[in-house]
């Protein structure tokens, strides 16, 4: 055997280390940070938080994005931001998967035929600018933009003599704007303020999911519904054809066919007029109501129920009526919105719960007529720029119109359906890499700033247009006449920080730290607009009823996870269950059992829907939760491009919706069974009844008004142990006993907590095949359960590890991988675990997850992994840890500062993101802690499966049921 020198040995072993670090299946990123020249703004091992604005939908919530060693790892809500006040929805939580999407466009692409070839930025700028300089007519179609980015787009169009600039959003609330234009001369979407509202009347407006500003509305709704001694919770009624998540939260759900919605809204308005329950005069409306009911059949809703709803609505102190859905347009949808606006006017809601002085940013999005004119104007001389919009997916005729343009330039992050039609694809920065601003409403100016360096060779969209205009010989100028070199300079000048000097720089830095600028104090009271009622009339003609058994009315609905389809390539959202059906990875058709029986359709059959615009196929779910004359199916799926997680998953409902955009929100469809086999919908909760086990408990409001009965309750503390019935000895916790309270009255079922848990704790996405085999890895689930005694209502039970004091999982582990630590946590020691799964078998709550495979983190998704949480491997059991890493961070911070931990200082990821503030976390050994007060004294407290005597550290607070008269 030949001898090896020390130098050769070190060279070989060093090379092996490099090979291990750069191997394709790696799960962790361990890049060394050079210390000879320390990188700016990066302190190794230190968390840095950047304030920015979420652009996952037009709501414009404020965000704090955590950065560790140059990598963005977690998105959280900005507590100071007036829109969301620290909370985020599931889509906001998933924004990091958009940043690190493996299917992002990474380089400039040029299409010849059906193939793309990579090009340089200079080649792209040269080619496009030459076309512009030689007379190419500019047309711009962008997603909704405000502030500096909108100014750059407007300046770019103006520089080339064009006025063709539209901001396109598939969900633009056009019917609401049209109604307000007709009544008040204000074609805007007002702010609907649910703060303090005591009665909410929703006409198919899913305001807890995708309608309006969902995070703000969810917080306001949960605050109104919260149990307060002596104060009744906010009441809510929902009218619509489908039991949505929002409808499930209502006290009263009235199932109404789509074509009956405008008629029922008008009938409610007529009851208010006839009974004299209006605060403002609506006399001029009566002739239009009489004409409507003379030509329409009476509403298929009980008259007594209409009277009850009208009385409750007009008698409320701060009522509000909401008109949906947000994608609706056409005469019937406008008539519904007109009636809703008049109901608000009659009840005195204008100027209070309906505020026209703060219109939603969506008011600036393009209408259907403007879009039709825009696409019809395209010709061979046009250079069409499409910025971060996907009309080829959401408008069936858009692809044909775009093909008429001489050159299509796509600026975006994904190679979606629209990008595949473009001649040039210019990769732009993701919003978390770029500069900008967004104004969701007047008085709220949210800044957008990079939270980490660029991952790929991308540029800001504004910077690209500024460079193109300069190269074409038409540099863009601001309102002051200057020519900024990039969007950041434009932004600083627009905000008044462009004059230089220390004071301007300090103001700029303060705005960056805060995340923007907004009014802290409450706005002054506004004057309610007066409606123009002279000559008032309804627009829609009575729709013909279904004449054949196979004819139904289509009811598409917007998913809280996928919105209009733009985030469909994110595994976190595809694997997050729908709140009501608990189905993942795809969409399905909801069909009433009576209609299915008439057509010979069974559960899980493949069904085809056909409208005048197109057809689609999807598996069917039989449920009475949809009206007998309707079919319902979720929007956002069925992509032919976008990425690996989105392509070919589900069906594209927009293929059927050209008729919806012209006729209204009811469109006739034919439903027929297809002989082919259908992939059955993947459910992660097979039942929604409690089987008399009282898992999710509720209590009538009247029962809480009298002295409550004694509660059988053993605390997870030494005082909760009794020698006569406890098998195991008590635990002594020297410093802390961490615990959580979950208020079921507040939970709306949105699932944001579950997505936040994925992001914080490196929970892997396993894909549809493994989920179908029961291999999902979610540490926190929010399954729906039917409220006992209610036909329609659901309630949700957030369920993770209960961190029991007498944990059944601990004594059965043969290697002590499941242990009780000194602070009361049921800890899982991963490097001890040998995968016997005894702990899971013995857990009565079934909240433990087993890694059956070594799951791959597609690059660059591994960059998002939380470095303070172990990435688990095959053969290891895992579960909720109460975000122990956050507990340790807070403890270290308090120790460095020489103080005790403060109550509320430790906030697990689920509690931090929850819009409804369901979770309360703290130390049971702290007598002043909020968790101690709720656990010891709230009359609604109970332990899940308390009869097993596991002494959980999680206390649930029962739901409070409003008495519905």
Task: Please give a quick description of this structure.
This protein is 26% helix and 18% strand. It has 965 residues and is an alpha/beta fold. Pfam families: Fer4_11, Fer4_2, Molybdop_Fe4S4, Molybdopterin, Molydop_binding.
Helix content: 25-40%
Low-confidence regions: 13-30
The span between the termini is 93 Å
- How many structural domains? 4
Instruction: Let me know the largest β-sheet.
Output: 7 strands, mixed
Strand ordering within the main sheet: 5-4-16-15-14-6-7
Number of strands: 39
Radius of gyration: 29 Å
Structural class: alpha/beta
Task: Give the key terms.
7-stranded mixed β-sheet, Barwin-like endoglucanases, 28 helices, 965 residues
Description:
Belongs to the prokaryotic molybdopterin-containing oxidoreductase family. It holds the Pfam family Fer4_2. InterPro entries: 4Fe4S_Fe-S-bd, MoPterin_dinucl-bd_dom, Mopterin_OxRdtase, Mopterin_OxRdtase_4Fe-4S_dom, Mopterin_OxRdtase_prok_CS, Prok_Mopterin_Oxidored. Keywords: 4Fe-4S, Iron, Iron-sulfur, Metal-binding, Molybdenum, Oxidoreductase, Signal. Residues 47-103 form the 4Fe-4S Mo/W bis-MGD-type domain. 26% of the residues lie in helices and 18% in strands. It is α/β, with parallel strands linked by helices and 965 residues long. The protein has a 7-stranded mixed β-sheet, sandwiched between helices. Strands 20-25-22-24-23-26 form a 6-stranded mixed β-barrel. Strands 11-10-9-12 form a 4-stranded parallel β-sheet. Residues 13-30 have low confidence and may be disordered. The chain is globular and about 90 Å long. The protein has 4 domains: 109-169 and 365-518, Rossmann fold, CATH 3.40.50.740; 174-363, Dimethylsulfoxide Reductase, domain 2 (3-Layer(aba) Sandwich), CATH 3.40.228; 551-683, Barwin-like endoglucanases, CATH 2.40.40; 698-961, Alpha-Beta Plaits (2-Layer Sandwich). The protein has 28 helices and 39 strands.
